[in-house]
Amino acid sequence: MYQYIKNTSLLKKYLFIGFSLHLISSYFSIGFYSDDEHYQILEPVAYLLGINDILLKDNSHWYWEWELKMRPWLQPYMYYYIISILKLLGLNNPFIWTYIIRLLSSIIGFISIIYLFSTFKNIFFKKDTHFNYLIFFSFWFFPFLHSRTSSENIGITLFIFSFCFLYKQIVDKNIKFNFYLSFISGIILGLCLVIKLNLIFSILPILLWVLIFKFSFKKILIISIGVLISLTAGLIIDSINYNEITFTYWNFFYWNIVYGRMAGFGVQPWWFYLPTIIIELAPVLSVFFIIGLLTFWIKKPLNILTFFTLSSLLIISLFGHKETRYAFIIYLFAPLFISYFFETYKNIRWTNFYKFIILFSNFFFLFLTLFTPANGKVAVYNYLYKKDIQNSKIYYLEENPYIINDMEPVFYTSFIPKINKTDIEEFNKNKNNSKFWILTNSYKDYRHIIKNNNCTKMYSSFPEKIINLNKNWQKHKFNWYIIYCDK
Q1: Burial of 301 (0-12, 13-18, 19+ CB in 10 A)
Q2: I want to staple 336 with a disulfide (CB 3.0 to 4.6 A). Which of 50, 124, 159, 287 is the partner?
Q3: CB 130 within 8 A of CB 180
Q4: Is the model more confident about 16 or about 177?
């Protein structure tokens, strides 16, 4: 692959584009996409750092999984040691900590998709066209996923490395079997399970395919030993941190599936994933992804990718509770299946138009996810931290910005000033008495406050010119304002 990259100027240009997008996303993608990304990863890190003292004591909201000893410690420990090194270097800024973590994750994630590209190029990208390279290396989902601190990101990244290696070792007859690399691949495969146990639903179909079509006792044994070593190491780490012998994997299965806690978060119909992917994950592009996926299933029913994607989708559809992120492992392959569709049906009418609207929808989502924070409240914390106003008075109106889904993200809020509630009436009484900061996500309240000559808008999640484009946007409370008032 190295020689191919070296000799292909077109590919080198798109590699540069893809890498640049990952760097941009890791810088701007502040906050978290899902609550699990923060409360099940960064708050345990805060616990290890001595910031969060209730993780293992509070069984309410998002911490109940830790009280039931069903969450793995491996990923929080990885981040804990990264932060510990940064602290030794004198970096005590939580936003720099998470930026470095996102940056490292993005670089590793980008390397994984290069490996993915090289592994399946001959199947999906037979022609070195601008469209094939552009849809793959500018695919909005890659930088978005890789700049997350979630278990989905690290788990899927490790899965891609091990899956691509196993594909080459087991499927490709031209590659000589390597004992040591296969063993390491097994360890990586096991680590992705330790970090994200849900990936078992994608790994089992792959192993089943190998048993049916490419059975090799020696290869399976070596890989299995590596997997078992990782799973055992994960249990040891968990048992040490839970202060007793703990079978985390069984606890996860029992409480979520047998006991039914998972269904308590809502039950969706069996057909949830296909329409939801189309609607939520870059419409138009997502439509052609589904079409390309179905085309591949029909054309290559015995291919390992058909086994993997179809079986994964069927398995996760069996569970009552469904979330779009559970299908991320399948959606990651979207550029491959889109290109496969167009290379399969070369003479389809309006091909250039379809490709244009696919790229347009991709760039729209790319721009949206590259330059906007994943969570607006965390961007507010970042601004307050940079202002270094620990001794200042800070108030909020109505919604408390220090609370996200009924929980306080102390990983961040412990580094910024405490906040108190006020209201417009109290503000009108005291507006000339002292200097203070006020936070609100109400456009109406924001406009009322800055009418006072002594109050100035210091920060807005989105530029005010954008909010003013549509009066309906002014009614919705997605934009946070930080206002400073001086007597």
Answers
A1: exposed
A2: 124
A3: no
A4: 16
The pairs formed by 422-431 with CB atoms below 8 angstroms and a separation of 24 or more are 422/395, 422/396, 422/397, 423/397, 423/398, 424/397, 424/448, 427/395, 427/397, 431/455, 431/485
Read off the pLDDT of residues 115-146 as tens digits, 9 standing for 90 and up: 999 998 888 887 778 899 999 999 999 999 99
CA 108 to chain centre: 14
Token pair, residue 25, equals: 């996303």
For residues 322 and 267, give the distance between their C-alpha atoms in angstroms, rounded to a whole number: 7
Is the pTM higher than 0.70? The answer reads yes
Beta strands in 285-350 (DSSP E): none
User: What backbone torsions phi and psi does residue 127 show, to the nearest 5 degrees?
Assistant: -110, 140
Which residue, among 53, 68, 83, has the nearest Cα to 238 in the 3D structure?
A: 68
What percent of the chain clears pLDDT 70, i.e. is strictly above it? 95
- The rounded distance, in Å, linking the Cα atoms of 255 and 251 is 6
Residue 448 banded pLDDT, cuts 50, 70, 90 = confident
> Rounded to whole angstroms, how far apart are CA atoms 483 and 455?
7
pLDDT category, 461, cuts 50, 70, 90? confident
The answer for residues whose C-beta is within 8 angstroms of residue 229's C-beta and 6 or more apart is 186, 187, 190
Instruction: Say which residue the tokens 């639903």 belong to.
Output: 201
State the amino acid at position 186 in one-letter form.
G
Q: Give the β-pairing of 481-485 and 436-440.
A: antiparallel
SS (H, E, C) 23-35: HHHHHHCCCCCCH
With tokens 């946070």, the residue in question is 480
